[in-house]
Amino acid sequence: MKVFSMVFAITVLAAAPSFAQEKGIQDPSGYVSGFGGAVWAAGNSSSSVLFEGGVRIAPHLMAFGNLGRFTNLQGDLEPTLDTATASLATQGVGVTSGGSLPAWYGVGGLRAEIPAGTHFFPYALGGIGAARLNPSPQFIFASGTLPDGSTPTVGTDVTQSLITGGSFTDPPPSSAFMMMLGGGVQIPVLQHWAADIGYRYSRIAADTTLSATPLNTNVMTFGFGYRF
After folding, report:
1. CA–CA separation, 70 and 24 (whole Å)
2. CB 77 within 8 A of CB 101
3. Beta strand ranges found along the chain (DSSP E)
4. CA-CA distance, 142 to 151, in Å (whole number)?
5. Within 10 Å of residue 57's Cβ, how many Cβ atoms?
6. Could you give the CA distance from residue 221 to residue 210 in angstroms, rounded to a whole number?
7. CA atoms lying within 13 Å on the CB side of residue 115
8. Containing H/E element for 214?
9. pLDDT for 36-51, tens place per residue?
10. How far apart are CA 84 and CA 149, in angstroms?
């Protein structure tokens, strides 16, 4: 790993001067980037992917749009799971809850690039858009007797039985307003190509079928971008 890091650093530093000397490369006409990263939300962590592109509308100012996916924002599903688990407990049914809450999102806004030198290109961005939430709750039987009178084997997934019997209402997919702020730095590695390291903060408005409060996400992004 140390050898790889040294080779990567030497490559970046060696490529940066020629990258920066190209006409317009420090204030390009546009860019496209792809990212992978980790997202933290409501005490849980999962992965994320993001594709983004932009075009210059003024010196060092881009209009951008992106499309991304959070693998699992389970923290926003927890209030629904907790309420259902507590309700079942009053009926003498013990379950453990889980599931996932993946979300696709799209955001558009402005990105400002900060002229800072020839070896790296910092930027800051902000935008608004929407997130599409697709909850998939899960309940595993632990004890008691289900409302339909059955007693499944411990460890059985009883989610569909609870929905069919009316003991749990499956939250439907929904869309919510989303705001994004962030920044990062592009580091030239090849002609027109740059490594991109950044941070994105997003706030997804409350969906009353899931949670009473907005969901805040923090994402570290790592990827590559093409400047043209």
Report:
1. 34
2. yes
3. 30-41, 44-58, 61-70, 93-100, 103-113, 121-133, 136-144, 174-190, 193-204, 215-227
4. 10
5. 9
6. 27
7. 9
8. none
9. 999 998 778 899 999 9
10. 18
Residues 6+ apart with CB under 8 A from 10: none
Q: What is the pLDDT of residues 108-161, one digit of tens each?
A: 999 999 887 667 889 999 999 999 999 999 999 999 998 888 899 999 999 999
From residue 36, how far is each of 24, 68, 71, 141 by CA, in Å?
28, 10, 11, 36
| 100 vs 95: CA distance, rounded Å | 16
The terminus-to-terminus CA distance of the chain in angstroms comes to 32
SS3 5: helix
Q: Which domains does the chain have, with CATH numbers?
A: 2-74+101-135+174-227 (2.40.160.20)
Q: Which residue has the tokens 């003024």?
A: 58
- Strand pairing of 61-70 and 44-58? antiparallel
Burial profile 133-161: b = 16 or more Cβ within 10 angstroms, e = fewer:
bebbbbbbbbeeebbeeeeeeeebebbeb
Q: Which two tokens stand for residue 172?
A: 């439907």
CA-CA distance, 37 to 48, in Å (whole number)?
5
pTM of the model: 0.81
Q: State the amino acid at position 217 in one-letter form.
A: T
